Structures are given as structure tokens and as C-alpha cells.
Amino acid sequence: MFRVKKERKKMALTRGLASSLCLSVFLFSFTFLFWGTSVEGNPNYRDALAKSILFFQGQRSGRLPGGQEMSWRFTSGLSDGSFANVDLSGGYYDAGDNVKFNFPMAFTTTMLSWATLEYGRKMGPEVGNARAAIRWATDYLLKCATATPGRLYVGVGDPNTDHKCWERPEDMDTGRSVYWVSSSSPGSDVAGETAAALAAASMVFRKADPKYARLLLSTAKNVMQFAMQYRGAYSDSLGSAVCPFYCSYSGYKDELLWGATWLLRATHDVSYFNFIQSLGANDATDLFSWDNKYAGARVLLSRNALVENDKAFERFRQQAEDFICHILPNSPSSSTQYTQGGLMYKLGASNLQYVTSITFLLTTYGKYMSASRHTFNCESLYVTANTLKALAKKQASRSLVDYILGENPLKMSYMVGYGAYYPKRIHHRGSSIPSVAIHPQSFGCDGGFQPFFYTANPNPNVLTGAVVGGPNQNDGYPDDRKDYSHSEPATYINAAIVGPLAYFAGSHTN
Prior knowledge:
Layout: H1 7-14, H2 23-34, H3 45-54, E1 100-101, H4 102-119, H5 126-146, E2 151-156, H6 159-162, E3 178-182, H7 188-204, H8 210-229, H9 234-238, H10 253-267, H11 270-279, H12 294-306, H13 314-325, E4 337-338, E5 344-345, H14 352-372, E6 375-378, E7 381-384, H15 385-393, H16 399-404, H17 429-432, H18 449-453, H19 484-487, H20 491-507
Antiparallel strand pairs: 1-2, 2-3, 4-5, 6-7
Helix pairs in contact: 2-15, 3-5, 3-20, 4-5, 4-7, 4-20, 5-7, 7-8, 7-10, 8-10, 10-11, 10-12, 12-13, 12-14, 14-15, 14-20
């Protein structure tokens, strides 16, 4: 049963959701189509932002610091890397299991970094916590990139064994296998994403810690060179160690584009632009996810066209707007469905990962549009930044975020610990089993199933800030621990919502 748990991610990733700019027109139609009027709720975005970042403490692997606020979690995975005689402790568990998959972890890091770069000034005191969340990942990714010359370590823990267990990370007694890519077993996708994460993070730390920023950037350049020189998908090299859990279903060209795009922004080195031009990465998409990065790269490249007025980037602006036109519900070329309650709906498995990723691109492209007073058309649909601003005042442009925070047919917040009514039986091992502080004895691989997995009781530990997979296509949510496709949180769901929450928290007082 638990070996197929990540089929959610397999499905999810073939459809990595996209995001759209014209928050304005989009949510005008969104509001009228589904609610009949502007959203009347008043979510506390600052509270949600703080909780969304706090969540990452619950996913930490390695030796936990003294300031750990998620007090039911303890140190784990200190021997990670020992099978390869290297130290690979640290990093994050990706979701409700105890495996460290670097592909989604690096994407998580890139998105947290992008959020901090775009919206750090709106985060207030949370910007320090955002940097800490990023650094917990980059410290680990640096080890993976530098521990052994010629290797990039890309994962720790056997997922097929791990998913047969229901135990706390502190109790792990399964083999902690180590996986890597190299010149003979390439992984351009995971390497490109790792390079993107390190490059994006280098800009986050450029002023806060210049020495660390330089280390991140120099390592990013080396990893990107490896990705470009030794072409191949890491799924082909590693097989069942990463598939079907985090296969590279979209191939590796999008990660080469994504990695080069971030290095171009971090370095302004024209060689990365030339490489991007040579890739021919022109695939149309209506997706954006930890697997499919085309839309994210194009939105980021569009910044040069819109904000910097550089005509050499016009092609990417047009591609970004084509993507956006596939998202807007009233666009003639829309390929995106919405539920009766107004939720963007791409896939039945972990749909909110796409909603949060889309929402990030919506707010960010809208920001670029506003800065340049840019408008465009989706055939007969006219999109303006002024419309975006006007609707933001009516809360219409926040409908997707508001839905997640409780403005939905069930009046349920899909962020754990936020609001009065939220998921209590999430698919998460550490949350569902009593803490070491309460029960110091180990439960073992099978020890958590009967007493804690199958019970209808709420989880004893609150994974504050976790955004779960979300409701079904009928806006229903059973709050069932066994229903992992809806009840499991993941780092990449949360990483994408941090930016929009910061945007709204900084734009309005709560």
C-alpha cells in the first residue's frame, strides 16, 4: 500500500501546474464565476506567512538546533551518507515520509529563495526565518555537491523500503541508501535544479552573508557545468530509487533552462543567455511544478523584457503570456479547470501543489507587469496591470490563497494550525506518532501502523503551517490519514505559497 504512496507525485508531476499573471482579470472572472461577489473574508496573511515558514522546521533532518520551535521533533538521520563514507546529514524530508529526495528539495529551495528575493521586503520579521529555512537546505545541498569530486549526491534513504514503514524519523531503522549521479550516470535534471537552488540562494545571502553567497554561487556554476556537459535524465540512471516517486517525467531540458536562467540572473554572464538560446526549449505548457520548470523559467526571463526593457527577451515574455492564457478561466485558450467552489484544479493527486505554484507565478508576473505598465491580450481577452491593482483592493486577486485559508465551501483551512477548522489527520509519520518527548521508546518499522496510522483519532503533533494536498474536484475533503493524495503535506507545496502570502501580508494590514 505504501509503496504506491508516491503515485500521487508521479501523476502530479506529469501535470506540474502553471501559474498566471493577470491576477487581475483572472480573479475578476474567478470571483464572479464562483462567488458572485468579491471574497468577504479577511484572512490573517501575516499569521499564515509565519506558519508557512515554521512548517519547514517539522521537515528537518539532521541535528536540530537549540532554537527549534517545532518542539515535538528531534534529531534524526545523523548517519546519513555513511554508506558512501560522506556526511550527508541535514536537509529536509520531502513530505510525510523519511526519505530525502534532492530533486524536489532543490526545487523547494529555489522557490523559497525566489519568494525571498521578490517579496523579502514585505516579509517583515519573517525574512530571517525564511533565510534560515533556505540555509537548512543549502547547507545540505552544498555537501551533496562537494563531498566527492565528480559526484552529485541526490538522495538518501530507500523509498521502497521506507514506504513499507510507519515510524518517526527519530526511529528510522531502514537502510539509508545513498544515491548519486556522475559523468557515467548523468542527471542533468537534478543537477540543473540544484544549480538553480544554489544560484537563487546566493542572491538571498549576498548582503546577509557575502562569504556564504560566494560559496553558493561558485558551487552553482560547477554543478551547472556538470549538468550541461553530461546530458541525461537522472531517472534513467537511478531507476527505482527515484521512480515512480520523483521521476523526471518532463525530461531534463526544462531544468537546463531553469538552471541557466537562475545563473544568468545571479551572474549576468552572457554565456548563460547564449546557452539558453541554443537549447531550443520552446515546448508550450500549462504546467509548473517540481518536475516541469518551463513556465517558471519564462516568467523569470520575462523580467528582463518587462522590467529591464531588454528586447532580447521578448520571446520569453510571449511564451510566459501564452502560458498565462492557458490558465485564465475566461481566456479563449484556457486549458485549466476550476471546481464549483472556485479552486483551480489540475490533478486529483496533491492538487494544491499546482495551485500554490500557479499563484506564485500569478503574483510575480503581475508584479513585473505593474512595474512596466504592460498589457497584453489572450485573443479577445484584454489584460492590464491596472485591473490587477484595482481588483487587489477588493480581495478578488487573492481568491486562490483565500480558498486555501478557509474561504471555500467547507470553510476549512487547508493549512494545518491556521484557523479554527483545519486537517487533523494528515498523512505524516512524525505528526501522527507520539513525540520522543512523550514516548522515548522506539516504535520500529511496523510499530506505528495499528495504533496510529489506522486510528480515527487526530494526530497528536500539530505540523503547524503544513499545506496538505487539498480537496477533491467536488471541493470535498475527508480528512483521512490513509488518503495520502489529499491529506499529505509536502515541502514544495509550502515553498510556493510563501511568496504570495508575503505579498498580501505586506500589502494589507491584518
